[in-house]
Amino acid sequence: MADSTQIEVLNGGNMSAVLRVGDTVRRQCGPWTVTIHRLLNHLRQHGIDWVPAPLGIDQNGCEVLRYLPGVSPNYPMPDWVWTDQVMLDATRSLLQLHDATIGFQNISDIWQIPVHEPVQVICHNDFAPYNFVFNQQNDLCGVIDFDTASPGPRAWDLAYLAYRLVPLAAPGNPDALSNSLEERKRRLALLCAAYGHQISMQELAAMVIVRLKDLAQFTDDRAKNGNSQVAAHATIYRNDAAWIEQHQSEFA
Predict the structure, then answer these.
(1) What is the pLDDT of residues 94-106, one digit of tens each?
(2) d(CA 199, CA 191)
(3) Cis peptide before 153 (omega within 30 of 0)
């Protein structure tokens, strides 16, 4: 890193610290870094040019990615994040990503997050507004933070997007939009139609429950291993899963 280069700690980085160094982004490498860089190159070669370009490893053992200019919103989300257009653009972008990863897998691949069956695509595993990049017109123009990507079913990723953007979350969730159950049903129907692949509202709601319980356990494990600041998140995930279970029949 050149001394004259401006260094900035970026928001997010919940799994590891992320630095912006000039027009690059850097974070500590893991055993999975080579696989993730190969995935990003694969996506870009298949026309997905709105994901970070990997630039290698620096002398400090950090991965180097091209910085994607724009805004990545944080909670509480600005009002424009909750528009139908943002949700539909995100859903269609996820479909593009998934379709581009078909056939990507290699026996030598190493993933930070476990593989989930049935394997249909490579899942981003954290496809949510805080990992989106928006331009000045609030149009979705990029997706970041692929370090926790791993193989899995399409609905695994789509369920998390529904959780974050419909949102399929319990009243009182501090990160959720306070909209009615009828409005959530309407938005979930839009999301399912935009993605296609015959994934129904009922199937997706059921997958959100599985996804949140898995995430709660993952969060508990992280808290026990020294990341105590995330412990409260596990309770939120379980409360949200319980709320969906109470209303599951209404998403049929």
Answers:
(1) 999 999 999 998 8
(2) 10
(3) no
End-to-end Cα distance, the chain: 54
What's the pLDDT tens digit per position in 35-92? 999 999 999 999 999 999 999 999 999 999 999 999 999 999 999 999 999 999 999 9
**Beta partners for residue 97, in sequence order:** none
Apex CA 159: angle with CA 181 and CA 120, to 5°? 155
State how far the Cα of 168 lies from the Cα of 209, in Å rounded to an integer.
10
| Alpha carbon separation from 5 to 99, 122, 125, 198, 224 (Å, rounded) | 38, 35, 32, 49, 37
